[in-house]
Write a structure and sequence with these properties.
- The complex is a heterodimer of chains A (about 250) and B (about 260).
- Chain A is of the alpha+beta class.
- Chain A has one domain: Ribosomal Protein S5, domain 2 (2-Layer Sandwich).
- Chain A contains four helices and ten strands; from the N terminus they run E-E-E-E-H-E-H-E-E-H-E-E-E-H.
- The radius of gyration of chain A is 19 Å and the shape is globular.
- The termini of chain A are far apart.
- In chain B, helix 3 packs parallel to helix 5 and helix 4 runs antiparallel to helix 5.
- Chain B has five helices and 16 strands.
- Chain B is α+β, with helices and mostly antiparallel strands.
- Chain B has three domains: about 55 residues, OB fold (Dihydrolipoamide Acetyltransferase, E2P) (Beta Barrel); about 80 residues, Nucleic acid-binding proteins (OB fold (Dihydrolipoamide Acetyltransferase, E2P), Beta Barrel); about 80 residues, Ribosomal Protein S8, Chain: A, domain 1 (2-Layer Sandwich), CATH 3.30.1370.10.
- In chain B, about 20% of the residues lie in helices and about 30% in strands.
- Classes of the chains: A alpha+beta (about 250), B alpha+beta (about 260).
- At the A-B interface, strand 3 and helix 4 of A face loops of B.
Chain lengths: ~250, ~260
């Protein structure tokens, strides 16, 4: 059941039994389901369900750049197109890309660029199309996660995968993986992404107020959550091939 | 058609004994023993030189002291000497432009499209191009060509002078994932021989992921098409050649082909 939000937020973001509104513990992430190879026309694709978020990503490339003036003679470029469907939010979203879409496309590009070997493909572009079908908080993190998965599925050489999660603070308590309502009514929101080859932060945005100790603790919470997400990503990538292997072995024995 | 000039190196990949069928993903640590192992194809030594990581989704392979990753997905990168199936998409008086399933279009110049048997002896004959006629193609023609030059920056150049090369006027061209081409050929061409014998089709497999097939009738071609798709799907499994012969025999009975 989707939540109907009429700009009136509940006063307390915790239930009486101490759990969050959707029944999670403070450091519990929402249930995540991932699948690769869902779009047959794309070179690589992935689908993600993260709580109520439903996101598709498709990768094409390396291919010619249009418009041509964007091409760089010494290296390839990565272009990310983050779009939200008109029906993905409670009030109809205008289909034209606005400020928010352009910003998120840009931060995902910057986040994914360090893991690719763009200098090997001069004059070309890798294009990642992200389509948000259903949005409920944390779509920029979910989009980054699913874009990395689609790139890996396309066979693009990568240094490592990228995972992202949002941490934050509601009603004075630090929590992991904010849902839509916690994002809007909470005190602080801190989306972060990690590139696993050097374990460095590739995306860090901040909104709200929080002191330094809380920030450090939040980042530590994020690390454990990111590890969990990485395991789901690895499993999703491998399952495309291991299911065929298991079928074969099952048939033979 | 034959595929006699098989690149032995490419073919070993999938069939090699040392290939333990372990699927690795980008960023996965292959080994931390950097003294005994050297990073090979599809791998990278990290900056601190403490571990070797995989760059592609693929199968881990240890060959002597090299660690390789054989990709399961990927795109075709032109290399000089490769045979490719090209589609003419543009023509002008000085060159044809061809789609070869790579990031760049390939160029075919008329001097590389001389008609067979028309080159007069050089002694006595004039050195000019007066007695050389080049073949003419239309947009939409299918060519089997060889790459004579390719690098990172320039458009690859093609030639159609050579054995088995030239325009194809019949048959079907199908496309599969380029990294799975070695599997369709098999070790020493075993898979391709099997397919030819069982389906009575002519097959020409090229490095850019395109396969030209021509059979006695459409039923055989359909069977071969399904068989190749099955190979593409199960490229990472063991004992594929035996399974394919069973598959084709059973499908023949199901479809009522002799």
């Amino acid at each position: 059941m989707p939540l109907i939000i009429n700009d009136v937020y509940p006063k307390k973001l915790f239930r009486e039994d101490g759990k969050r509104l959707d029944g999670r513990e403070n450091n519990e992430i929402r249930p995540i389901k991932m699948k690769v190879g869902v779009i047959s026309n794309a070179d690589g694709s992935a689908y993600l369900e993260w709580g109520n978020n439903k996101i598709y990503a498709a990768v094409y490339g390396p291919r010619e750049v249009h418009p041509h003036h964007l091409a760089k003679p010494d290296k390839g470029i990565l272009r990310v197109f983050y779009r939200m469907a008109t029906f993905s939010v409670f009030e109809r979203k205008r289909p034209a890309p606005g400020r928010r879409e352009k910003e998120i496309s840009m931060i995902i590009t910057d986040c994914l660029e360090p893991v690719l070997f763009l200098e090997l493909y001069p004059g070309t572009a890798f294009e990642v199309f992200i389509e948000v079908m259903d949005a409920d908080g944390g779509t920029r993190c979910a989009s980054t996660t699913v874009a990395a998965l689609a790139l890996a599925d396309a066979g693009v050489p990568m240094r490592s995968l990228v995972s992202a999660v949002a941490v934050g603070k509601i009603d004075g308590q630090l929590i992991t993986d904010l849902s839509g309502i916690e994002d809007k009514a909470g005190e602080a929101d801190l989306p972060c992404a990690i590139t696993w080859f050097n374990e460095e932060l590739s995306l860090l945005q901040f909104d709200g107020d929080m002191d330094l100790d809380e920030l450090n603790e939040s980042l530590a919470n994020a690390k454990t959550a990111l590890n969990e997400i990485l395991q789901i990503q690895l499993k999703a990538l491998k399952s495309k091939y291991t299911t065929i292997l298991e079928e074969q072995e099952g048939g033979e024995s | 058609m034959e595929n006699e000039e098989l690149e032995s190196e490419e073919l070993d990949e999938f069939e090699s004994e040392e290939t333990d069928r372990e699927i690795v993903v980008p960023g996965e640590v292959l080994t931390e023993d950097v003294e005994h192992f050297i990073p090979g194809r599809g791998t990278l030594l990290n900056k601190n030189k403490t571990k070797i990581i995989a760059l592609n989704i693929g199968l881990k392979q240890i060959k002597k002291n090299y660690i390789n990753v054989i990709p399961l997905r990927g795109f075709y990168t032109p290399k000089p000497g490769d045979k490719v199936i090209a589609l003419v998409i543009d023509k002008n008086p000085v060159k044809y432009k061809c789609d070869i399933n790579a990031k760049d279009l390939a160029v075919l110049k008329p001097r590389n499209a001389i008609k067979r048997g028309r080159i007069k002896s050089f002694r006595g004959g004039s050195q000019g191009s007066s007695n050389m006629e080049s073949e003419e193609f239309e947009v939409g023609d299918i060519l089997i060509a060889k790459i004579i030059s390719a690098d990172r920056l320039n458009m690859p150049e093609l030639t159609i002078v050579g054995k088995y090369l030239g325009k194809r006027v019949n048959g079907i061209v199908i496309t599969i994932d380029p990294p799975k081409i070695p599997r369709v050929i098999g070790r020493n061409g075993s898979m391709i021989k099997l397919l030819k014998n069982l389906t009575k089709c002519n097959i020409f497999v090229t490095q850019n992921g395109r396969i030209w097939i021509k059979g006695e009738n459409i039923a055989y071609e359909r069977l071969l098409f399904d068989a190749i798709k099955k190979i593409e799907n199960e490229a990472h499994t063991v004992g594929l050649t035996d399974r394919m012969s069973h598959y084709i025999e059973s499908e023949k009975q199901k479809r009522g082909i002799k």
